[in-house]
Amino acid sequence: MELIRIEGIEKRYWNGEEEIRALDDLNLNIKEGEFVAIVGPSGSGKSTLMNLLGCLDLPTAGEYYLNGENVAKMSEDRLSRIRNTEIGFVFQGYNLIPTLDAMENVELPLVYRGLRKTERRELSREALTRVGLENRLFHRPGQMSGGQQQRVAIARAIAARPPVILADEPTGNLDSQSGQEVMEILKSLNGEGRTVILITHDDRIAAQAHRKIRIQDGKIIEISS
């Protein structure tokens, strides 16, 4: 089943009088349950594309359909619900709150969903166990390695059981072993039926996805399985 369809997507910015085309006439389909890697060098437009796919931004031109619904016609409340319940975000910088322990960091987005404390605790513990951190529930970020912090970030992304995971350079700050551990978690989540969209500059990481979409200068230049 088709999850994502983008048609003629463009994203333009202005730097003084100079027009910058971050994305230029992109066309792409992603099916439910796929593991897709979007790969390209810094400045290629891949993070801009992730922001559009994650409903964090809207295109300048073109159309984006999510589950058959035109994102441009959605209300801000609807977009907010999608970001909060249907998409789990994982970023390169972890974005953990240093004064909160792992459980509290994972629990925080669930507070905004209005879940009761007992349910939030149960989901947080389940997610942290899922990424192998059952012995680090009450450690703060400063007491954990980079790889462990990224696993907390993944647990936070999956705690609400969203069907889509968007991961932007999730291995970018990690050594090769920790990076591969993160990839194994993402592959396992995909194996359970979640759609995983991975943004990376690393071809070795991208090669582990089912499909690789190479982007350069805002254009898709190659799609390979």
Essential attributes:
225 residues, alpha/beta, Rossmann fold, six-stranded mixed beta sheet, four-stranded antiparallel beta sheet
Could you explain the architecture of this structure?
With 225 residues, the protein is of the alpha/beta class. It has one domain (2-224): P-loop containing nucleotide triphosphate hydrolases (Rossmann fold), CATH 3.40.50. The chain has seven helices and ten strands. The strands form two sheets. Strands 6-7-8-3-9-10 form a six-stranded mixed β-sheet, with helices on both faces. Strands 2-1-4-5 form a four-stranded antiparallel β-sheet, with helices on one face. A hairpin with a 2-residue loop joins strand 9 and strand 10. Helix 3 packs across helix 4 (117-130), helix 4 crosses helix 5 and helix 5 packs parallel to helix 6. It is globular and about 50 Å long. GO terms for molecular function: ATP binding; ATP hydrolysis activity; transmembrane transporter activity.
